[in-house]
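Exercise 7b. Backbone tokens:
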């Protein structure tokens, strides 16, 4: 049991720097040097963050913003955004795979609901505010009414990075059990970054529709 717990913790903390080096190759010279330089200058950047949020969350999430800001100066905003998205989506999906216990437990609609709620209480999204709208054998609908990723990225003047976190949600729900489950957001643009008061999440069980 202890070994299993260790394996899960290792999966849940992928080597973001190694992923980023792989993504950056071919786009900038000396990606390792770029990351080291960014880490050395990050301390001053994060000390100016005055939000009342846990320090570990600020450290990890604002470093993404700092990398993005540094990359924009090298390759421009469009390329910088896509490079950060490639790295964060890869590592973020690995975290969610662990949160949903995709290796340790069977994939089914009931487990998706159970582990999503567990992750919301214990994982990286535990600071968000979630409201369950419907929970039946055929449909699971919930809303996030507070997104701390959006709050922090907006504070740092890079709100566009929030959509990358939305992409991680899209990836885990669309790949969890694609033959049997349908994920959508009750229409287009139903997220806080796109101007809504809450983010919509709907998972439907095709076996019960």
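Sequence design result:
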């Amino acid at each position: 049991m202890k070994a299993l717990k260790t394996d899960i913790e290792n999966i849940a903390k992928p080597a973001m720097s190694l992923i980023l080096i792989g993504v950056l190759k071919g786009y900038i010279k000396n990606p390792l040097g770029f990351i080291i330089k960014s880490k050395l200058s990050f301390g001053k950047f994060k000390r100016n963050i005055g939000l009342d949020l846990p320090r570990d969350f600020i450290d990890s999430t604002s470093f993404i913003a700092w990398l993005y800001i540094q990359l924009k100066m090298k390759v421009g905003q469009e390329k910088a955004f896509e490079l950060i998205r490639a790295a964060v989506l890869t590592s973020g999906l690995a975290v969610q795979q662990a949160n949903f216990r995709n290796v340790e437990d069977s994939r089914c609609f009931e487990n998706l609901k159970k582990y999503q709620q567990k992750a919301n209480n214990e994982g990286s999204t535990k600071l968000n505010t979630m409201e369950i709208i419907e929970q039946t054998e055929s449909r699971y609908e919930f809303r996030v009414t507070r997104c701390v990723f959006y709050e922090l990225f907006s504070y740092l003047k890079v709100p566009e990075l929030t959509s990358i976190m939305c992409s991680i949600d899209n990836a885990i729900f669309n790949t969890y059990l694609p033959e049997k489950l349908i994920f959508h957001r009750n229409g287009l643009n139903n997220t806080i970054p796109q101007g809504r008061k809450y983010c919509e999440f709907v998972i439907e069980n095709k076996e019960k529709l």
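Instructor comment: Residues 26 and 83 are 11 Å apart (CA to CA). The chain has eight helices and four strands.
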